[in-house]
Amino acid sequence: MGLSKDQIAQRIAQELRDGWYVNLGIGIPTLVANHIPQGINVEFQSENGILGMGPFPFEGEEDADLINAGKQTITAMPGASFFSSELSFAMIRGQHVQLTVLGAMEVSDSGDIANWKIPGRMVKGMGGAMDLVASAENIIVAMQHTNRAGESKLLPECSLPLTGVQCVKKIVTDLAVLEVDPERGFVLLERAPGVTVDEIQSKTAGRLVVEDEVPEMQL
Amino acid sequence: MSTTNYISKVVPDATAALEGLEDNMTVMFGGFGLCGIPENSIAAIREKGTTGITCISNNAGVDDFGLGLLLHTRQIKKMIASYVGENDEFERQMLSGELEVELIPQGTLAERCRAAGAGVPAFYTPAGYGTEVAEGKEVRVFNGKPHILEHAFDAPFAFVKAWKGDKAGNLIFKGTARNFNPMMAMAGKITVAEVEELVEVGELDPNSIHIPGIFVQRIFQGVDYEKRIEQRTVRAKSE
After folding, report:
1. What is the pTM of this model?
2. What is the rounded CA–CA span in Å between residue B181 and residue B193?
3. What ipTM does this complex have?
4. Which residues of B touch A112 (CB under 8 A)?
5. Does residue B230 form part of some domain?
6. B84 and A CB contact within 8 Å
7. Which CATH number covers residue B20?
8. Is A76 at the interface with chain B, CB within 8 A?
9. B5 located within any domain
10. Any chain A CB within 8 A of the CB of B233?
11. Per-residue pLDDT of chain B (239 residues; tens, 9 = 90+)
């Protein structure tokens, strides 16, 4: 049994460091905000123009002028600020945001990522993802290890149109935590509780590096 | 003739604000999703029946609201956007080839607007390097990292929406409804601003102005704002 989506978010939250500005993508990454460790102060940036994003509003307190990049109604924390899209991406390209967490359809063992287009089937657009992956110093991908057909999403090369090249640093899936070393491939850092190295190996199509004993994640 | 000490930008309504808008023009629309979109101007363009529009907008609205209204009436020829999900009619027109679509990274979209308004003809950005967005574009390496050359937009018209504005065209936005509105106001040769509250000159604090009136050619008091919410998300009171 691998991790639930919420547990993936919980594991990623352990990567947060005090004083970081963090951009969370849509889906599993959004859940990271629910698991900020004690004593850690972070501010969430949403690229449509807010720093200091808070939780969803109470029913009846929704404001059409206050949404996140997923177009969901949100609240603003004390100390929050609003700004324009160009200033928002100045923060992102200018590397003022310390961590980006986003989902992916595929990741290659050299750190390429594909998450915006399936030719002939789904063309929704890249939104801010290309700007984020091209500039962020620290990118964590949150995703399932395999797709719905059971095929590995950790590949030697991405088959879908790319969002960015050699940019992903770390991946947290339902089965494992992996670091991307563009020279060597996916370095296995941790296993999900009860998941064996053999299972991870069988579900990783790209190069997998296993060193010594691989510890279980602590959740 | 009396002197007012300011340049009035006021037009009576959305219809009057469209003067000079012709078929086959490139037009910018502010907003992110349905947040901060120029509702009155979109409705007036639909009424006017302007066709062949090349739209520059982060999104394409939903089926029955925002720019989706102009898609239904086939008034849009081409859409330049960063994200176009949540719109079935858009997808149908795109897949059938009726609608041209150019998808570009959101930060690049914003900067191409800003550059247009700031007199910067082109700039380099790392966004999209190594992807299909970079195809045919000049690549240059700065500080060991490859960047691609992107050009400023050229838009004869920009339609933006603000919370408050004065008769001189000074604008203040609210919350995340600011988004693309400021840099599109800068970029438009004719920028039309519609506001929820149009006030007399002098009523807005100059320290609080987000976009100075120099970037706005026409301003009008908007009416009947729906301000539709795309994804209503709430939490229970007990949390």
Report:
1. 0.96
2. 9
3. 0.96
4. 130
5. no
6. yes
7. 3.40.1080.10
8. yes
9. no
10. yes
11. 567 789 999 999 999 999 999 999 999 999 999 999 999 999 999 999 999 999 999 999 999 999 999 999 999 999 999 999 878 889 889 888 999 999 999 999 999 999 999 999 999 999 999 999 999 999 999 999 999 999 999 999 999 999 999 999 999 999 999 999 999 999 999 999 999 999 999 999 999 999 999 999 999 999 999 999 999 999 988 65
